[in-house]
Each structure stands twice: as C-alpha cells, then as structure tokens.
Specification:
By secondary structure, the chain is mainly α. It has two domains: 80 residues; 40 residues, no CATH class. β3 and β4 form a beta hairpin. The N and C termini lie far apart (79 Å). The structure holds zinc ion (ZN). The site of zinc ion (ZN) has 8 residues, from α3.
Length: 120
C-alpha cells in the first residue's frame, strides 16, 4: 500500500469516526428534545390546573386574585426565601407525648421524640 493510500485510509477512518459521533449527538439531541416536549406539556397541564383551581376558589370567595397577582409580581422582582415553620408542639407518633417540633427526629416517614429514638 502506497503512502498516499495510507493517508487516504486514515482520512477515511477519521471521517467514519466523525460520522459516528455526529450520529450519537443527533440521537442525544433527539432524546433531549423529546424530554423537553414532555416537560412543556406537563407545565401547560399544571397551568391549566392552577387556572381552574384559582377560578373555582375565586368564585367561592375563598381567594383574593388581586393579592395573588400582586405577590406574583413582587416574587418575580425579588423572590422570597422559603420560610421555615416556627417550632410548635407536635405529638410523637411512637409514645404520644407532646414535644416541640424542632426537637423531633425523623424515623422513616414518622417523627419521633428524642426519648423514643434514644430508647430504640
Ligand atoms: Zn416519643
């Protein structure tokens, strides 16, 4: 095989590799695009649910739509940080004693008092 043939073979292999990479990228872009379409539809559905809920609650006089609009506009310009609930008395699901929420320990899906978690 001549030097020219070797060079052409190397170029051919490089082109084949580039084609494989381009195909892989195209497949990835297709999958991402499909995922984005799904999320877009879910967001639209959530928007419809929120709209129906707001309409129903406003019709029953249970919602101040203008206040919500004002707060949404405010949130868009200066988002507020989520507020943690202040400590409050809660009942331990294990022993039934009332203790402050900030002293509870999460055990699976339940919240136990420290005494119960210590005596496990
Ligand atoms: Zn307890």
């Amino acid at each position: 095989m001549s030097t020219r043939d070797l060079r052409q073979n190397r170029k051919l292999r490089a082109l084949e590799e580039a084609l494989e990479q381009a195909t892989a990228i195209k497949d990835t872009v297709g999958a991402v695009s499909s995922g984005v379409s799904g999320v877009r539809e879910e967001v639209r559905e959530l928007g419809r649910v929120v709209h129906v809920l707001m309409t129903l609650l406003a019709e029953k006089g249970l919602l101040d739509v203008e206040e919500i609009r004002r707060r949404l506009a405010q949130e868009a310009t200066s988002p507020t940080k989520p507020v943690e609930a202040a400590p409050h008395p809660v009942t331990c699901v294990h022993c039934g004693n009332k203790v402050m929420s900030n002293t509870m320990v999460k055990v699976g899906a339940d919240r136990w008092c420290q005494t119960c978690t210590t005596n496990l």
